[in-house]
Amino acid sequence: MKMNWKNSMFASLAAIVLLVTGCGGATADTVTLSREVLLDKIKGGWAGQTFGCTYGGPTEFKYNGTIIPDEYEIPWPDNYIKWWYDNEPGLYDDVYMDLTFVEVYDKYGLDVPVDSMASAFAYASYKLWHANQAARYNILNGMKAPESGHWKNNPHADDLDFQIEADFAGLMSPGMPNSAAEVCDGIGHIMTYGNGWYGGVYVAAMYALAFVSDDIEYIVTEALKTIPAESTYHQCVSDAIRWSKENADWKTTWKLIEEKWCDEITCPKGVKDPFNIEASVNSAYVVMGLLYGAGDMDRTLEVSTRCGADSDCNPATAAGILGTMLGYSNIPEKWMKPLREVEEIDFAHTDISLDRAYEMSFGQALRMIERGGGKVGADDVAIRVQTPQPVRFEQSFEGLRLVYKKTDTYRNFKKQFVHEFNGSGVVCTGRVRAKKGMNDYVARLGVEIDGRKEIVEMPADFARRRFDIYWNYELPEGDHTMKIRWLNPVEHANVVMDGILVYARK
What we know:
The protein is 41% helix and 18% strand.
């Protein structure tokens, strides 16, 4: 296994590399770090994630299908993180899920059932979106993982949701990308499948390797070995790595990715729209930030943010990985000064502060090191570094192609809505709008396709909402008639459908 220690900050931290004989005579690397250094790296990961999210927050999905222009100066004033904590805490929705999973592990141990993880976020008070919200609805209505994240039950299965909340899996698995992938297998399939799951596996693997290497190119390349080569996710990220080596200007690489990989056909919101929330493309932006940043935090954040799209999640991931590599104590003061103002403050919707997150992740990392065959001493830890192995291959929306997407708004479900189409799948996007104070109201829709009837329930409560009105990817190929009627209409509420997507088999 390649270990690059050239100009390494690990040397100053007295890291020791030993070769030991593993099972079956195989040779494995063991990296010994002081407990102090291990904690410093874990803190660096959490810190980078938090200030990266803050840095990119103001531009999130404001630049879709385009680079954030150079003339737009991304702000970083004093007390900036505290301002967001106080005024717009929802910015940190990308961090809440991480915190939930870490807390559940802290309470119940490493062998806690995945159902406990699913329930913890499903019943949490914070707002969710896309794959996470679709999974939350599924769980609240009796569906369990992995079915809750499967693309047939979750039209957002390829979205980046798990990618942006898999940091915890890497931070608890130092030097152990396969162990991180195992953690991701259970939790990631609560809300994603295929490329959506791969996004979390890859991110977690990069975090894991950032504990034991200071070579960015090695980290992004080696971590990709956890992803099956035949997947489009692997192919997209491979392109990002190769083009980043070939082109001095990151904008050239961005354009190449945009031209080849940004034809979104899965997430209903992003289909035929510059709004791209698919995991593989956003992972490519993370990789670009890391490679073009070349270990410099300022540059890493600049590139990963200016790629646009989900411009808070991507710099949060890139900065978290780099922060793990650098360690908390080596992150420039520019980023750390506003962070220190909030470390003792609980995140909104939680009773968890950064200080507590540091502590919990550290304890989990110690237990995972022992589980992975390493040793935990009073002063040092010996980590059995794993050679990345690919997880199983899976593909969402297999065999489907988009026939058309219509975005006409339909509001009068008191009368029967009828739509005729030819294909094998259909998705209706929309929501319930209700007057304030009507959170307990649940709209009931009768959906009929070719004589088969189904009742769809759509809560007005934002936290419990159904993210799409209806979907079915398993219709027989051919002509279909879909009818929808609102069965329990009330005053001061309305059901709005804003899009219809029709799919056929390739």
